[in-house]
C-alpha cells in the first residue's frame, strides 16, 4: 500500500487544500493511506512513501493534483517517484 503524507499550514488554513487532494487521490486509488497533519507555517509538503515530491516552502505553489496522482501510480507499480508539477500561481500581488 502506498502512503501519502501531507504537511500543511494550519495558520494559512491549508487544511481544505489537503482535503481536496485526498479526495482527488482516493477517487482514483481508493487503497491509498493518506494522512494530513498540521505543520510548519506556509507549508504544503507532499511525500509519497517517505520521499518528498512537492514542497510549497520551496516553490511557493500548490501541487497539481494530476501530477501527484501520476507519482502515486508510479509508486504503486514500484517505480521511483519524481517531483510533482506545481499549479500556476494566480492572483498574487507583490508589493
UniProtKB/TrEMBL annotation:
Gene3D superfamilies documented for this protein: Glutaredoxin
Biological process according to GO: apoptotic process; negative regulation of apoptotic process; positive regulation of filopodium assembly
Gene that encodes the chain: Dyak\GE15347
Keyword Protein biosynthesis included in the entry's annotation: no
Keywords on record: Acetylation, Apoptosis, Cell membrane, Cytoplasm, Disulfide bond, Lipoprotein, Membrane, Prenylation, Redox-active center
Name of the protein this chain belongs to: Migration and invasion enhancer 1
Cross-referenced InterPro entries: Selenoprotein_Rdx-typ, SelW_related, Thioredoxin-like_sf
Compartment(s): Cell membrane; Cytoplasm, Cytosol
Functional note: Increases cell migration by inducing filopodia formation at the leading edge of migrating cells. Plays a role in regulation of apoptosis, possibly through control of CASP3. May be involved in a redox-related process.
PANTHER family: MIGRATION AND INVASION ENHANCER 1, SELENOPROTEIN W
Cellular component terms per the entry's GO annotation: cytosol; plasma membrane
Organism, as annotated: Drosophila yakuba
Family: Belongs to the SelWTH family.
Topology of this chain in the membrane: Lipid-anchor
Pfam families (UniProt xref): Rdx
Subunit structure and binding partners: Interacts with GPX1.
Domain of life: Eukaryota
